[in-house]
Structure formats: C-alpha cells, structure tokens
Amino acid sequence: MADLDVQLAPRFADGDDFGLTTVVAFAAHPDDLDFGAAGTVALLTAAGIRVEYCIVTNGDAGGFDESHRPDIEQMRQGEQRAAAARVGVADVHFLGERDGYVAPTLELQQKIVALLRKVRPQLVLAHHPERNWSNIQSQHPDHLSVGEAVVRAIYPALENPFAFPELQAAGLEAYRLREMWLFGGPVERENHFVDVSSVLDLKREALLAHLSQHPDPQRMMQYVEEKLAAVAQRGKQPEGALCESFHAVTVNGNQTIAGF
C-alpha cells in the first residue's frame, strides 16, 4: 500500500479520508485505458483496490489487417480482457456502442449511471471531455464524447434519486462519487501525476495484448515510453520517473455542498 499512498498524498494532503476501495475506469475503445491509465490501474490493484473497466464501444472500426474484419469485435473484446488481466482487472463491461458513432446521449448517460450505482466506486477514471489541440491524433471524437457522457452522468444524475427514476425503482440507488481522474486532456489541466515506472512491464504487456492494433509494436512502445518520460518532466517529477497524468477533480469532498 505504501507505493499507492505516495501517489495519493498530493491529492489528499488535507487529511480527507478517501476510503478508496473501488474504481471504475471508462474508455471509448479497447486499448484506450492501456495507453492512458494502465500503469495507474496496476498500482491500484496491487494495493488491493478493486478496478472494473467499462468500454463504451466494441472497437469495430479499429485494426489494420483486412483479414480481421469479420471477427474484429470479438478479437478486440478478447484483447481487452487479456490486457485488463495483466494489470489485475477481472471485470470488463462493454456497452456496445458503434465505434466512431458515440455521442453523449441521455441513453448512454443512463447506462453509465446504472453501472456506477451498481458498482458504487469512490473513484472514476475516464477520458477528458476537452480537446487537447497539441495532440490531435489522440483526440478521437469518441474519446471526447465518452468523457462528456461520463462527466454528465456523474453530476447530477448519479447522485440525484429523481434522475432516471426507473433506476432508483430497480434498486440502483443514487450516491455521491468522491473523485474523478480524467486522462488525455489539455496539458494545462494536468494536476496529478502518477509514477508508473515500477509497473512499466505490466503496462507494456497490457498494450501488447492488443495485437490487432499494432503493426509495429516496438515503435509503439518506444513512443509510449517517450511520452511517459515527457509527462514526468512536465510534471516536475524526480529524474527517471515515467508518469501518467490526470486532471483530478473532487466531485464530493468534505467541503462540498450538494445540490441538483
């Protein structure tokens, strides 16, 4: 737990008892979480914290090999389950939206609220809903839509018993989320850096599980490690650190006055 405590300390130095036991991580496509947060997830699960994944699409528009097209959805779901297992995640939910067609609809928000009320995490990881203009290649419209849908679902619907009343009637009771960490957003939004150098091998294994996506795995991993080093430098982390970065947002803290 010590390694994780070091990572959490900058966020909760005010003495707030986070009580972190459960996390849900959302992404648009299989492999998004492995690029954006798999190292952090590996640290969480190693500390005994339960993490579940929710992938909004089946990744049907991904890949590079024409021969994979008939089986691409099944391939990518299998790859994501294998990647999740590498970092200690057993539960992977797929919402089945079409790859490239995601919008932050009320229907999608309701699915997100239903899952969160069922699992009841204290922390949610998700794409940032704001575009990072300095890295447009990572700003797939589905990423932005998933980030927006998750943020809208978290407040106010998740904690409002009168939002999606059919969920409340089905026993999925409203509750207040403590924290969300958003990845892939504008650099100026970064306020939390997690050194994943101790679990780099696990992050690498998770990424390499996505065989259908990487025509040049060696070049891909070189890019990822260079990016992690650059993020650490940007965050003024110790020499040798390799970091994933987040825009960490307190949704309900000790000083929060709730309201709909």
TrEMBL record:
UniProt KW Protease keyword: no
UniProtKB keywords: Zinc
Organism superkingdom: Bacteria
InterPro entries: GlcNAc_PI_deacetylase-related (IPR003737), LmbE-like_dom_sf (IPR024078)
Pfam families: PIG-L
A Gene Ontology BP annotation from the UniProt entry: glycoside metabolic process
PANTHER family found in the cross-reference section: LMBE FAMILY PROTEIN, N-ACETYLGLUCOSAMINYL-PHOSPHATIDYLINOSITOL DE-N-ACETYLASE-RELATED
Protein name: LmbE family N-acetylglucosaminyl deacetylase
Classification lineage: Bacteria, Bacillati, Actinomycetota, Actinomycetes, Micrococcales
